[in-house]
Amino acid sequence: MLLLTNISQLVTLRGDSSVRRGAAMRDLAVIRDAAVLCAGGQIVVACKQREILRHPFFQRRKRKLNEIDCSGKTVTPGLVDSHTHLIFAEPRLIDFEKRISGATYEQIAVAGGGIRSSVSAVRAASTKSLADKALAALKKMQACGTTTVEAKSGYGLSVESEIRSLQAIRSAAKRWPGTVVPTLLGAHVVPAEWKQKPQEYVRQICEEMIPQVAQKRLATFVDVFCERGAFSPADTERIFAAAIKHGLATRAHIGQFSPCALKPLLANAPASFDHMDCFHEKDLPLLAGSNTIATLVPGANYFLGQGKYPDARKLIDSGVGVALATDFNPGTSPIWNMQFVLSLACTQMKMSPEEAITAATINGAHALGLAKRKGSIESGKDADFAIFSVGDYRELCYWFGGNVCKLAITATEVD
Length: 415
Ligand code: NIG
Ligand code: FE
Known about the structure:
Elements: E1 2-11, E2 30-39, E3 42-48, H1 49-52, H2 56-59, E4 66-69, E5 74-77, E6 79-81, H3 93-100, H4 105-110, H5 119-124, H6 127-143, E7 146-152, H7 159-174, E8 179-187, H8 198-215, E9 221-226, H9 233-245, E10 249-254, H10 263-266, E11 272-275, H11 284-288, E12 293-296, H12 298-303, H13 312-317, E13 322-324, H14 338-349, H15 353-359, H16 362-367, E14 385-388, H17 395-398, E15 405-409
Parallel strand pairs: 1-4, 1-5, 6-7, 7-8, 8-9, 9-10, 10-11, 11-12, 12-13
Antiparallel strand pairs: 1-2, 2-3, 5-14, 14-15
Fe (iii) ion binds next to loops.
């Protein structure tokens, strides 16, 4: 059993089970001077400190009680990072320097840099070394408060190396106490060997990669980078259809550099559209009426030096459910700390601290289909918490460039 006591601010996010939108994104349901009791990996009760000692479960306790004094601290649900490219072998320092000299991400990609330049190192790496690197990243994420991580393949770009990348995710996940949701991103870019025959690569994704990944149960989601220079909306629809046929859920990188029509893709009920720097305003009512989340990844805008961020205000004010994620990857967003993403959301996208925290917890859980278990502190949910050394939840978004997380606890660690 675990008891968190004397919590200055307990950010519960309790509420109804639907995607949080509009004003609901601003309701964190904070309990001041609070306590949380957990057993068997689940939350038993979250309430005022003075009520906890009277709780019958607490009085009947049989198991050993592990008590953590959270005086002066803020406790939130474990942060949910719903978009990471966890599997890669090396940083991309040449691209980094080229951008400093003035080249854009798309220019670098056309000239042979970008995603394709991360592929040979992943193909050459052993599955074990990929898994070890992934585990190291997961540990750094947890140290910053993240307890649930979506993890993509996407730098192997062949049937064999995408499968190995997903096996590396599985191996890292087994050695990490948090929750990992694996995603196949074979459709990240067309690899060099298929550049002259891109449709043959799409066929391979649909007819070989997806069926094999589904059969081996290596992924929950199939993702597509839908963008000029990567995959077209028609390719995306074809890949989504193959995913659904094989029992996998869908999500896509959409509108990073150019907008695309959302309606045909929404027909497949994807869990999330990610980036959303560009969109057609007329698509927003449709998106707001769906359960598809817009996952914003401002770390990429920051690192690419774009000086421009997605219009979070327009999305939220239109009723779209918004999540925030790191987009941890070697090309556009080498950041594992969700706290920096919270800072960017508030300072650059004018999200309120309440909206940003909702986007990094319960809406992130919705973006992964995990909202029944993750993303809020309520009886029966998983005992995933982040304990921050600050007395006010707004400070999570205020201090930047550091780490104010004292401890992140995951359900598997709570007996
Ligand atoms: O989400 N845009 C596509 N995928 C990644 C970037 C990958 C890379 O450049 O290595 C992203 O930003
Ligand atoms: Fe991404």
